[in-house]
Structure formats: structure tokens, C-alpha cells
Amino acid sequence: MLRSITRFLRDEEGATAIEYGIIAGLMAVVLVTAFSADSGLGLALTNMFTTIAGALPKTL
Q1: What does pTM read for this prediction?
Q2: pLDDT tens, per residue, the chain with 60 residues
């Protein structure tokens, strides 16, 4: 019984999955911040697409 508990406490196999989850969560926060429509890259993309849409002919 003590050997099983010791082996369980020393097992680090699940640690990498937790680390990958933390990295993915941090990347999601960074991407949402970077692509928000209020600032940064999101604002530049919004302005670019608005300019392109305004330059297209209205054919409906």
C-alpha cells in the first residue's frame, strides 16, 4: 500500500498535460487581446476590411 502511494506521488506523467493546458490558456488570452476590435491588430483588420468593402462596387 505504501509503495503504491509513493509511486503515485512520484508519477509526473500527467504534469505535461497540465502544462500544455496552461500554455493553451495563456495563448488564448493573448490571441483574444491581440485580435480584439478595440485595439491592436483587430482594429487594423477592421479598418482594412472597411476600406476594402467601401471600394467594392455595389451590384445588388
Answers
A1: 0.51
A2: 888 878 877 776 666 778 888 999 999 999 888 888 777 788 888 889 999 999 988 876
Neighbours of 43 (CB within 10 A): 13
The contacts of residue 4 (CB under 8 Å, 6+ apart) are none
8's grid cell: 503515485
d(CA 25, CA 40): 20
Per-residue burial over 12-41, b if 16 or more Cβ lie within 10 Å, else e, is eeeeeeeeeeeeeeeeeeeeeeeeeeeeee
